[in-house]
Each structure stands twice: as structure tokens, then as C-alpha cells.
Amino acid sequence: MSSSLSRGSRSAIASAVVGLALAMCGGAAAAHERSIVERPINSELDAPLLYQLLIGELELRNGETGTAYQVLLDAARRTGDEGLYKRVVQIAVQARAGDQALSALRAWTTAHPDSSDAWQSTVQLLAVLNRPAEAVEPMRNLLSVGTSAERLAALAMLPQWFQRSPEPQRVAAAMAPVLQAQQGELKAAALVTEARLSLSAGLFERAEAIARQLAELYPEADDAMILALDLLPHAPGAEALITQRLAAQPGRNALRQAYARALVRMQRAADAAREFRELTQRDPDEPAHWLALGALDTELRHVVEAEAALREVLKRLDTPPKDEAKPEAAEEAKRSRSELRRQALLLLSQLAEQRDDLKGAERWLSQVEGAQIDVRYRRASLLARQHKLAEARALLQAPVSASDDEARTHLLAEAQLLREQRDWRGALGVLKQIDARIPDDPDILYEQAMLEERLGEFDQMEERLRRVIAVKADHHHAYNALGYSLAERNLRLPEAKALIEQALKLSPGEPFIVDSLGWVEYRLGNLAEATRLLTQAHAARPDAEIAAHLGEVLWVSGKQDDARRVWREALGRDARNEALRETLDRLKVGL
């Protein structure tokens, strides 16, 4: 129950060990010493204290929390036992009595001002109560007691303690003076913590400034780069920190890989492909780098480059791996290589299908083991291309015993198949089956809205997109789709711009949203701003639809040669793109 009991137990064990050693030595002196060492040590748990503890616990069990709290707090004050103080705090916290818990913590820290456990518990409770100003002094005390490891751990945990605060800016402002005062071995960790709090508070300029400071003070450490990666969508200058480090230390493959993955998350496929291409040159034996490059080039419709990269995956996988020291590591490596092969074969099949080489697509697909939904989808797509749509749909049917999640996956695949066949009404019907089974799924509602737009049912589309936003307020695709649809139809342009700007706040830098913003600026007549935004979007993701928009703005701005160049390059990547073809036909441009 208390730490004094555990100390008494340890003393008894130690006495027995020493006594045994002395007995082995023999002699009167040894016997005399043994009699001293083996003398019983009285426990601090006397009868009145035992009675008090029993009463406290019985009152707690009987639901008399307040009485139990008072009884045990009195016992803690009498004995100074930290275990008892902790127990009292737990009782108050479980009873949701924040002020009583703080009172117990004040008694604890008064009795044990050097207890890192007590100060940490105080900061954590004040974080839960969202009282950052009151946590300043306890945090300062926590960083002045305990071991170096405990102080560093406290700095690392501080952002997590306050992560649910509804006022993160208050947290950042309150803790900044404490963190900025740290020097020596705590300085770097304190800077990282301040940057994390600033990032959570949306103070991106401050977080970026700290990242730069860390990069200058600790050029060999990874802290600045980790912060810069997290800041990428929010602070334009953060990317320069990463590229400068990679330019100075081009062999930092782990950093380059993390940077490339961050670019993928931001949907900057072209930039991500550039970094993975560099990785394949610096670490050519790693098949995962080749697969990532092949997937990105497939997405960018760089068919020749994609196929070459994917063949490199298979070439590397055909080389036997080095023996692993542990059997479990070897088994994990085997599973990983099997999945890499499966993904490469699926992508090669997809590329062959894009070239209308259906036999080649089937040949690649026949090498894929298993019958997962992605494999079945590729087979269904090939059947549909051969006018066997009923057979293709049957291949994607979920088993009768399927769970809701399994049924959702199969129905989404079937809807995508029908969408590729331009059967908008049929795809919408399939999605409504999911809606009936899993109502108010925001992603399903969104997909239905996109099909309603295809069908010209704009009122239903808008109603459904607003439903998505009501269900999931941070669904940036819904804001963007609604704003873009209004801009495309030249309706309510100020509202369209506000919706798109909200989408961009939720997903900073995403090329398709930047494209939407550029398009609404074009509709508003702001040609210079439209050109800037669309150029930015196209550079990050040279998609055919973005190219159609950029080309049109360039064309209207009198830059016909630049427009033709953009359109010609897009046609080379995606000659069937509807938006691109419609733009060229409407503007009566021949290439």
C-alpha cells in the first residue's frame, strides 16, 4: 500500500543475505555482528496508520469518495509517503474532482519538492484541466529536478499532455518562456518542444524559425529535418531547409525517402518521382524505391519510364536476399518481397491495359498470386474491356457472409468499374447500396455527389456535398468539389472561392485544390493570379485537367505558344482526357 512497506521488505531480505554470509565466516565476532544485523527493523506501518488506511479504503469501496480522500490525504501528510499521495490524487481524478486533485498535488510537492513524479503529475493534471498558465511554474520545477533522462522525457511529452487543449495558442504562449530559458543539454529538446507547440497552435512562422535555428545549431542532428517535414504543407520555407540539407549531404537516403513520402502525401507526384528517381541511383539494389518510382510514373502516365522502373523491381527481387540473422526477420523479409512483387505485377498489368495491350495485361496478371480485391478488380477491368461487363461485375461481388467493411470494399470496386465504363447511373446505384448499409459514410456520400455532377443533377450534388461537410467538417475534397463546381458553372463565385480557400486550409498545397483556386480566379477575371496558381499546380502535378485549365488561361492572356506547349505535353501523357479534349474543341485549337 505504501512505499514504507516495500522499503521494509527490501531491508528484511538484505538482512537475511548478510546474515547468511556472516554465518559462513564463523567466529564470535561474526556471530555478534550477525545478532546486530538480524535485529528486526520496525515498519513505519503502525497500528493507528494501518487502521486509518483500512478506513480510507473501506470508505472508498462504499462510495464515500470525499471521506476516503480526506482520510488518506491525512495519512499521506502524516507519513510523507509518495505512494499515498499518488493514491489520493488518483481518487480525486477518478471522481472528476480537479480542485481536490490539485490540492493533493500541492501537498505532495510541498512535502517532496524534489519529486519529478509529483511535478509531472501536476503538469499533466493542469493540461487535462486546460489551465496552461498555472502549469508554467510546475513545468519549470519539473525541468529543475530529476535526472537528465527524466527532464528530456518531460520535454518530449509536453506537447502530448496538451494535445487535446482547445486553446493551443494559449499553451504555446504560456510555455514559451520556460522552454526558451533552457540551456545546455536541454536546449535542443526545448526548442523542438516549442516548435511542436507552435505547430499545433498554427504558428507556422515561429515553428519554421525554430527549425532554422536547430539546423544552424545542430547541423548533424535530425530534429530540424523532422520538423521541416511536418511543416512542409504549412510553411514554404521549410522545404528549403530539406533541399539544402540534401544538397550538402546527398547521401542522406533516409531523409530523402521521408521527403519523397511527404511529397506523395501532398499529391506532388512529379516532385516525389524526382526524389525516388534519385534514390534509385543512390541505392539501386532497393526494390521498394523502384516500385515507388514505377507507381508514381504510372500515375503521371509516363508509361515507358514506369515500365522500366517496374521491371527493375522484378530484376532486384529475382536476386536472392542476404541471409537474415533471425528466422522471424527472414520471414518478414520474405513477406515484404512477395508484396513488392505482387504490386509490381499489378502495375505492369495496368500499364499494358492503358496501351490497349489486353493480352499483355493478362499475361502480367496471371503471375500474381492470390485473389485479393485489387487482383480481382484488374481481372474485372480486362473483362469489361472485352465487353463482358456482367462477368466482370460478378467477379467483384462480395460473399453473402461479408462484413459491412468487406461489402463496402467490393461495392466501391464495382462502382469504380462502372465509372470507368461511363455508366454513371449504374455506379450511383451501387453506391446507394453502401449508403443503405452504412449510412452517412462521408466518402460514399462524396462519391455519390461526384456521380450526380456527371449526371447534371447539380442540386442533389450540392445537397449531398453539404451533407458530407456536416458529417465530416474537415473533408477538404467536399469543400473543393463544391467550390469548383460553382466556379465551373460560373455561379456564386465569391462563395466558390471561400469554399476552395477553406479546402486549401485543410489540405495546404494540394495541387488539385490550387488548380480549383486558380480556376475561380480566372472566372473572376484575375488572369495574373490565375496564371500563377495554375502554373504552381501544374508544376507539382502535371495532370491533363490542370494542363487544360493552365492552357486556357495562357491562351486568353495572349500567350498562345505557351498554351499550345502545355496542351501538347498533356496530350502526350493522356490523349483521352475529357477536360483537355473539351477545352481544345471549345477554343477551336488544333495541335
Automatic annotation (TrEMBL):
Q: What keywords would UniProt list here?
A: Repeat, Signal, TPR repeat
Query: Which PANTHER family has this protein been placed in?
Result: DOMAIN PROTEIN, PUTATIVE-RELATED (PTHR45586:SF16), TPR REPEAT-CONTAINING PROTEIN PA4667 (PTHR45586)
Its lineage opens with:
Bacteria, Pseudomonadati, Pseudomonadota, Betaproteobacteria, Burkholderiales
Q: Which is a Pfam family this sequence falls into?
A: TPR_14
Q: What Gene3D superfamilies has UniProt attached to this entry?
A: Tetratricopeptide repeat domain
**For the region Disordered, what residue ranges are annotated?**
315-337
Q: Which residues form the signal peptide?
A: 1-30
> What is the name of this protein?
Tetratricopeptide repeat protein
Entry keyword annotation includes Iron: no
Record InterPro entries: CellSynth/LPSAsmb/PSIAsmb, TPR-like_helical_dom_sf, TPR_rpt
